[in-house]
Amino acid sequence: MVWGNLNTHVSRAMHGLASARLWLTIYQLPPYAPELNPVEGVWFHQKRSLANLTKHSLDQLTTLVKTRLKRMRYRPRLIEGLVAETGLDLQPP
Q1: Can you tell me the distance from the alpha carbon of 87 to that of 81, in angstroms, rounded to the nearest whole number?
Q2: Domain extents for the chain?
Q3: What angle, 0 to 180 degrees and rounded to 10, lies between the N-to-C axes of helices 38-50 and 58-73?
Q4: Are 25 and 1 in contact, with CB atoms under 8 Å apart?
Q5: Is the model more confident about 28 or about 84?
Q6: Closest to 38 (Cα-Cα) out of 84, 90, 70
Q7: What distance in Å separates the CA atoms of residue 43 and residue 69, rounded to the nearest whole number?
Q8: How confident is the prediction for the chain on average, in pLDDT?
Q9: How far is CA 30 from CA 2, 8, 20, 37, 67, in A?
C-alpha cells in the first residue's frame, strides 16, 4: 500500500492496525512528492484528455470523467506505466 501523509495515514490508530497485519507492506511517501504518487499520473492523464472539451453542465463533466476512468481500468499497460514512472519498487522486501 502506498500512503501519502494524510493525518489518518500517520495516526497511531492506523499504525496499530497496519502492524497487526504482517502481510501488509506500507510505503510512506515523503511530505510532498507528487512524482512518486501513481495517482498523480492518473489525474494528469485525465486532465490532458479533457483539455479541449467543453461540457455544459457538471453532470456531463462527471459522466465524462467516470467514463474515462473506467476506460483506464481496461488498459493495464497504462496503469503499469504510471506506476513505473514513479520509479518505485513496489515488490515486498
Answers
A1: 10
A2: 1-32, 34-93
A3: 130
A4: yes
A5: 84
A6: 84
A7: 9
A8: 81
A9: 11, 15, 23, 10, 32
For helices 38-50 and 76-86, angle between their N-to-C axes, nearest 10 degrees: 120
- The C-alpha cell of 80 is what? 503499469
What is the per-residue pLDDT across 27-46, written as a single tens digit (0 to 9) for each? 777 777 778 778 888 888 88
What percent of the residues of the chain are helix, what percent strand, and what percent coil, each to the nearest 5? Answer: 55, 5, 40
- Which residue is associated with the grid cell 470523467? 65
Phi and psi (nearest 5°) for 83? Answer: -70, -45
For the record, the C-alpha cell of 50 comes out as 479533457
Burial of 67 (0-12, 13-18, 19+ CB in 10 A): exposed
